[in-house]
What does this fold into?
Amino acid sequence: MTEKTIGYVELEWSCPSCGARNVGTTRTCKNCGAQHSTKIEFEQTVQETLITDEAQIAAAAAGPDIHCGYCGTRNPATAKLCKQCGGDLAEGQARAAGKVLGGLRAAPAPPLICSSCGTENPATARKCSKCGDILMKPRPKPTPEPTAAQPAPSCLPRVLLFGLLGLIGLAVIYFVLAGRTTDLVGQVSNVAWKRTIAIEALVPVTREEWRDRIPAGLRIGQCTARVRYTQDQPAPNSREVCGTPYVVDQGSGYGKVVQKCWYEVFDDWCQYQDLQWRSVNLAVAQGNDLNPRWPAFELARDQRAGSAQEEYVVTFTANDKSYNYSVHDEVGFRQFSPGSRWRLQVNTFGAITAIEPAR
Ligand SMILES: [Zn+2]
Ligand SMILES: [Zn+2]
It folds into this structure.
């Protein structure tokens, strides 16, 4: 990010003795004669315009003013001896500079109403055009005190709490019921297996990428210019972007108006056609015996076999009720000869939780 100087504006300072607002470059209060001291900070005027006078611009850029070490009088940065007492300014104190005061106030400010006679004066006026009284800066509206009344406590947290307790209760009930089992002896009444293989094919897909990152040989479609990165220096295909101008205290009664700028570099963001393996079909084999096998299938050009899945389900009959039991692999499945007898543990939900051959 680079910092650009747009120009300079005049600042002002408020006299703590009489309240008058003084032009930044004045070194004693125009109203009461009080001296400007290091303790009194510069402020922005309500409506700022860039100064155009060469001499003023030179004074603004000369550096912070120096307060005399003997009498406190404010002297320009270029002075060697105090214009008030003649003291050596090498012993003096330079004003602090570099503080960011705020955004440039370029927009017209509302008029100032004289508190003595009610006359409307331009925002930039310092004395009333009718009665000559000092015009005070409009006070910022006091922020409303936070009201003492507390908002009614929301019932939402309570609802959430009861909801959570309810869920915990349900979970506890579920685990108690699921854990309570009955012993039964069941007979294998059915066995079922199912094996599937996904058939995958190369399917065209549209992807997006920066033009220079698209693999060679692929068809590039529509492109749009997008910001790829930002940098301080201009580049071909770049656009300058600047932040809002703001005012920095120079310690001389002037403020420097600066702006942070950078360059957005554009590049081509493009759609392109690519191919991707996707499942387009399933080959399925199934049966009700203990000899599961894989489905036969044929692959077309640009096709391949994808993921394979197997399912084995044994059905038991006990006390005129049926219970299904899933087995994970073929070896386990082959133990369940139809008609064989097994000791089962069945929970409240009818699920088999343990199994062993009945003696
Ligand atoms: Zn004063
Ligand atoms: Zn002095």
Q: What stands out?
A: The first helix runs from residue 54 to 61. Residues 15, 17-18, 20, 29, 31-32, 34 surround zinc ion (ligand 1) (CB under 6 Å).
